[in-house]
Amino acid sequence: MTRRELIALVLAAPASLAAAPGGVRRILRLGTGRVERVPLEDYVAAVLPAEIGRAPAAALQAQAVAARSFALAKEDRHRDQGADLCDGTHCQVFRGLGRVPAGAREAGDATRGLVLVQREKVIAAPFHAVCGGRTARPADVWDDEETPDLVPVEDDACRDAPGAAWMFEMPRSTVPALASALGFPEGRFFEVFGHDAGGRVSMVRFVAPGGRSLVVRGFEFRRSASDLWGWSSVRSTAFEVEETRGFYRLTGRGTGHGAGLCQAGAIARARRGESRDGILATYYRGAAGAPVTFRSVA
Predict the structure, then answer these.
(1) 111-134 mean pLDDT
(2) Are 9 and 87 members of one domain?
(3) What global pTM score does this model have?
């Protein structure tokens, strides 16, 4: 896929987007259960400070395109609650319209209506904090037929970022709590049981005295560990395990699921002069026969 293919603009909006009256997103506020109606472009600007923080213009604009794409592709995540999206990390973090920095509004305006499209559908463009040198294939992270078909890419831009390398020591005495959170309270030991094509942990096996065992997905292991000990414990599924007498030492790279746009990498690329389009071309590289392109829905 060439960069020219990526930045081609197609002015006709997909028919599926007609279901978004007035470009409004219905946001479920998790703290109160209230549903707030927010104009799409205001919503996009408002999620930037929470999701990527202060960043150069090119990185903010790349994040804006990803956030808008996700907001339109995942419009039914909270249909049962009468909403399109929630305001938490399950969707995109939205803290309201009260304090949106000027840079975030400018990034939203500069990309107004632009989304990422694959196979004539707006993609739920994934993004994460730090890939640690290589992004992940979305299909290796989620069991979701709507996941975009992206290839992993080598990324030299984020290797020195905070969170690019990490270590977490898990006392052996805490393994039963983690195993219990995963539905296997008798588990006392664990081991890496499989890797995906990119080298990330795809399966973890818990073992109980007597030999019974439970195999879980790598992302389930990470999610449960984060619930118990915080997001800075098992930062990603790109890790190795060393077992000692008193604890398990996990040594890893990257922070987050690793698929799509690497925010630390996007910031570093923008600082060294890469454009919004160049950043998006790097991280949203479609598989052969399934390029990712821009489309305007404005």
Answers:
(1) 94
(2) yes
(3) 0.87
